[in-house]
């Protein structure tokens, strides 16, 4: 993990995100878990971020999701770990609460977790799930760093999350195999219908 802050790679992406949002008079909010607030800190490192950044939440514990993300007791009880569905639910809830044009959410495994069985840890560690909820569609993606280094993973989760958001803002090319388009739904909707692209 580089000591440079923000990393030059993140700065370039955030600068472009800022330009697009200002030009379109649109706004952004962020829900973070595994990144620990890095996405938000990268975003506000750009002068003028207050013009388009509504803010964000850091929902690290299940209790915080109950209080800050509109989850009910049953959803907390049924929670089995980070997933595409969880990322989308976080993005949709925050969009509803803060009224941003776009919301970006992430949830993943930056390092080994008590929730993971030993057989699952090797595959899950380094995995992150993203959700972007926008005015016309909701999109999800997955990414794996192939690393078990916690700090490295946190930084890479944040950078790749910002790149994923930028791609949606620019609509560059077609969706990759790791991305899925979802029908936009209200935050209290049931499991979303998924169309593979």
TrEMBL record:
Gene3D superfamilies: CinA-like (3.90.950.20). Signal peptide: none annotated. Residues 179-197 have a biased composition (Basic and acidic residues). It holds the Pfam family CinA. Transmembrane segments: none annotated. InterPro entries: CinA-like_C, CinA_C. Residues 176-197 are annotated as: Disordered. Residues 13-168 form the CinA C-terminal domain. This is LALA0S03e07426g1_1. It comes from Lachancea lanzarotensis. The lineage of its organism: Eukaryota, Fungi, Dikarya, Ascomycota, Saccharomycotina.
